[in-house]
Here is the input.
Amino acid sequence: MTVEPRKPPPQFVAKLRRALGGRAGWGGFVLQILFVAALVWIGYEIVANARANLQAQRITSGFGFLNNTAGFDVSQSLIPYSGSDTYTRVFLVGLLNTLLVSIIGIFFATVIGFLVALGRLSPNWLLSRICGGYVELIRNLPLLFQILFWYLAVLSTLPNPRQSISLFGSFFLSNRGFVIPKPIANPGFEPFVFAILIALAAALLLRRYARRQLFESGRLVTIWPYVVGLLIGLPLVTALVFGAPVAFEVPELKGFNFSGGSRIIPEFVALTLALSTYTAAFIAEIVRAGIQSVHKGQMEAGSSLGLQRGSVLRLIVVPQAMRVILPPLTNQYLNLTKNSSLAVAIGYPDLFSVFAGTTLSQTGQAIEIIAITMGVYLLISLVTSAVMSFYGWRLGRSMG
Amino acid sequence: MKRVSLVFTLALAAGLSTEAATAQTLKTVKDRGMLSCGVSQGLPGFSTPDDKGNWTGLDVDVCRAIAAAIFNDATKVKFVPLSAKDRFTALQSGEIDVLSRNTTWTLSRDTSLGANFTGVTYYDGQGFLVKKSLKVNSALELNSASVCVQTGTTTEQNLADYFKGNNMKYEVIAFGTADETVKAYESGRCDVFTSDISQLYAERLKVSKPADHVVLPEVISKEPLGPMVRHGDDQWFDIVKWTLFAMVGAEELGVTQKNVDEMAKSDKPELKRAFGTDGNLGEQLGLTKDWLSRIVRAVGNYGESFDRNVGAGSKLGIARGLNQLWNKGGIQYAPPIR
Here is the structure.
């Protein structure tokens, strides 16, 4: 049996040629190939040259350092870490700290941004002016200045641990951060989580049922009392049967600091506050522009159907505005993530501080570490934009 | 700061491909007419600019002495202020000819950075600065304390070793520059500021009430601070090394900034060798015969520079201690100039 070699259809060749921008025929195509080859060659030359010269000067190169012991400590880590761990571990600690501050910052920036935008568009004169003032003030001051302001002017005025502000004798606010009781799982913890999951699943089923009723028979079924009942009742019953799901380890003042409990460090608070309020000012403007891009008639049509202002916004205006909002909103998310590298100014142990800072100066391997760090920020940014594109694609599909 | 390190890294990646490993640094410096010297971003006693932009300090004197030996003009120095984490990249990339920035000599730095230490300008050790109001008398009472430290220093690792070795807990907050570290310490974010002891004395001058702070007696590490040069240029290595030896040697010979011209006329054989009236030691280094008198005329001998910048004659008032000459109870020692 012989297999006929498949000829590319002529259409395909034409498409390829168009994709490469070559209207001038194969000559242009060859030129472009040569151009790419030259770029690759230059890149290779740079790497090879740097390698050869690093070796000639006997500067250690390569990635072997990642397995060496770091020998320094870090103030905040989401995974267990001690000074006897490797630089790879330090990298992970820094990366997670960067992701933590970025994700929480993005969440608050989005919430504050939307609220400020809605406030600015509100018919209430005072509210609209306050929101306008917020935007103009915040977005026109340098971010580094704002980070230092929160850290040095606001948080450091809190009292020292011995005079900390105490809430209910178990929450403590001081210049060392916010110390809260730490939950510790009891035997009843697993059934409790299980009960919550069951309640959530039941609530989702109920919602589906209600929607079907609405679309099929036009009946508006009120389900929220059942949902609330399920979500509170079921876990409560399990807690009564199996005992309290968690115990709390209450922080105690020992020596200079609190021991026990969980602590949110002031560096994290200052950075998150500054990043989210700063980015929120830009997001507010983006959202405002998005909402105003929706024709006024849409709003009026919604009102004439008898919908309230909130429902009109939620069901009609915002979904249409999202098409305009999404691309610049993605930019703001990326900016926030990249701006989190200003953390080094206030000693928050993010990726840039512990890896491209401490690790770099201890190993001296600048080229490798800067390359890894750039690669990681690039990856985070690409993943963020991919997620946002996916969201935009779904939004576009659901709107038909 | 961030941008600076990126620039140096790019310069390193690009510069390495053009600059040959056996660079003739002396020729480059002479052609440029200027020595490029990496110093700190402002550490009183070691390298700090005044309000007119004039740099002074022990580390600065080393730069000036090299410039004096080459050009007979101690002002022909371009000072490049560097943070702790940018300093090595700046040296590797050729941005500076010599790094004279209170840098601790360690084995890994000497071998893996493509650079060499040329000597020890100051024998230091790491210590702790605390507020007097804490009523702490020893570093061993610091269990559970919060400690502020400058990132990219040997200090961070010594700190981890010390607390681990003594079974004490602590919280470390690492900042990019010394100023940020001191500000956080002063604001109460940390109980302790740790660094080389000389630096603790210097930074204490910057806080609002220096008398409220005290340096604890423990010295937890050895921190020999010295200048660094790139690998691959032995002549330049010799020049920087012997500039410092000339300063120490001059003190030993009793040559001072004041009496240098008088001493140069001396008939003593060792003085004649040092001043080049007999033999050509300076020329063997690639400099001129009168290299030593040029150096001493510009910055004085080691003892004078020490007193003026960090010792009794300065605001820091640090005792000579280990930095006294070997024949006066210290360990500063220069090989024979012959």
About this structure: Residues 17-21 of chain B have pLDDT under 50 and may be disordered. Chain B touches chain A through 59 residues (CB under 8 Å).
